[in-house]
Design goal:
By secondary structure, the protein is of the alpha+beta class. It has a domain at 62-158: Alpha-Beta Plaits, CATH 3.30.70. It contains five helices and five strands; from the N terminus they run ααβαββαββα. The strands form two sheets. The protein has a three-stranded antiparallel β-sheet. The protein is elongated and about 95 Å long. The protein binds iron/sulfur cluster (SF4) (2 copies). The chain crosses the membrane at residues 21-39. Belongs to the complex I 23 kDa subunit family.
Length: 167
Amino acid sequence: MERITNRAKQVERKPMTFLESIYLVAIVKGLMITLKHFFMKKATINYPEEKRPFSPVFRGLHVLNRDEEGRENCTACGLCALACPAEAITMEAAERLPGEENKYREEKYAAKYEINMLRCIFCGFCEEACPKDAVYLSQTVAPASFNRKNFIYTKEDLLIPHPKSAE
Ligand code: SF4
Ligand code: SF4
């Protein structure tokens, strides 16, 4: 075959010596590597009994915030949904009725608020976009599930407990 460049090198395949042909040296070398790793510090941990500490900037499950009186902060402005690159957030707005001032901080609130954790990439853009300090990402890992429906987190799943009822 014609060579395209002059960089090609001929590889010599020398016949094996007797010692090489019985693979004894190679086996001993391999065992030495195994033995060396046996006494080295393990790179793995016994999860879930052992857990690694997360980075301080780790972003986990979302939380919907309340104010100090227990009223929902979210005004269903939709900015978080707009900022979300994964289109994971959906909501429906509703108007606060007279007598509901103790439940919702603003005149408008999210009657429905859902985050699809299968779509979410935990980028934190929703938290940054929110002008009402209503949504933030906690340090909790989303639990595993075999059912896709369990990854749709509703407002009830996301809202933090009422400060008065938690007392
Ligand atoms: S963390 Fe990112 S991907 Fe997840 S809901 Fe918020 S904006 Fe969307
Ligand atoms: S969580 Fe914040 S950004 Fe999203 S709808 Fe509610 S108030 Fe607006």
